[in-house]
Amino acid sequence: MTPHPPGPTADRPLKLERIARLLDERGADRILLTQPENLAWLLDGARTSVPLGGPPVFSATVHRDGEVVVTAPANEADRLAAEEVSGAAIRVVDWFADLTTPGVLRDTDVVEELRAARASLLPIERERYAALGRDAAGAMTAVLREARPETTERQLAAALAAAVIAAGAEPAVLLVAGAERGGVQHPLPTDAPLGGRAMAVLTARRHGLNASLSRWVSFRDPEPDAQRAIREVEADVFAATRPGRPLQDVLADIRAAYARHGFGEDGWLRHHQGGPAGYLGRDPKVAPGAAGAVHAGQAFAWNPWAPGAKVEDTVVADDGGIEVLTVDPGWPTTDVRGLARPVDLDLS
């Protein structure tokens, strides 16, 4: 049976209101969306590409009155109408035709404004994100419980990919570091065995939303002191991630946290620290000069890192504090300033 896309969610009118305000501020009557994060956001999580991580195969023009017109090539239009896009007219063009419209305000002209429009999660988005977080964390637990020291990094990554796809999501990031590669910031899987202690990193995408988490499993090597210290860095980061604070102030607190917990003044320079999340894995990575502030109800994926130590989950920053989305009750945790945080899964 061919799946049919559900109708527009209750979030869609609120998104269109945000776009209308942007158009008013820019004095424009319509905007052309071409970027995957904007298309997936507006169209309720539609899958925008054919190759995983590839460019969108359609565009969408949003008019001030809320009309949405999707432009799609002839070889994609029927599938999009049947399976991905609802609540929009579809304009069909030749498969080789340009999907853009000259002389129209484009999403690439208003990157920061649209990033702000996407920032605060709406009710359906938040429900979907929480469900994705649970599924991603559950997949991680199930796969790592079956891992052994002789399992290779590639084998573990393949099992994670299968679990994520079985959950109706897509693996956007799959990293694995065995005992010999714990000092690699982005450990793309190799044929090396996991050895005494290993880390797995996953970003799962569903309904356009990205849920990221990192977990460690110990077979022989105990959790190092650095892992406990990096959780304290993360606790400082969570405390700094308060609605209304400029991202630059949050980054300043991150820098200080590394020094405070024994990683040196330059500890924060050894790896990117993550940042806001949602329809991109990082939206954006917070770096010196990054614009914007923390929004209430905004998702974040911070990833404090040191050689052999990392902690990462996808969370939401609310006025009342941090809610962790990537949670599986089967994973062991410890209390860090009132929040349950993951420790090594001990399979020794």
Please provide a written account of the structure.
- This protein is an alpha+beta fold and 348 residues long.
- The protein has 2 domains: 12-119, 3-Layer(aba) Sandwich (Creatine Amidinohydrolase, Chain A, domain 1); 123-346, Alpha-Beta Complex (Creatine Amidinohydrolase).
- 31% of the residues lie in helices and 23% in strands.
- The protein contains 8 helices and 17 strands.
- It has a 5-stranded mixed beta sheet.
- Helix 1 (12-26) runs antiparallel to helix 4 (111-119).
- The protein is globular, with a radius of gyration of 21 Å.
- The termini are far apart.
- The model has no long low-confidence stretch (mean pLDDT 97).
What fraction strand? 15-25%
Please mark out the parts with pLDDT under 50 across 5 or more consecutive residues, or reply none.
Answer: none
Structural class: alpha+beta
The whole-angstrom Rg is 21 Å
- CATH topological fold name of the largest domain: Creatine Amidinohydrolase
Alpha-carbon distance between the two ends:
46 Å
CATH class of the largest domain: Alpha Beta
Number of domains: 2
The SSE string, one letter per element, is HEHEEHEEHHHEEEHHEEEEEEEEE
The CATH superfamily of the largest domain is identified as Creatinase/methionine aminopeptidase superfamily
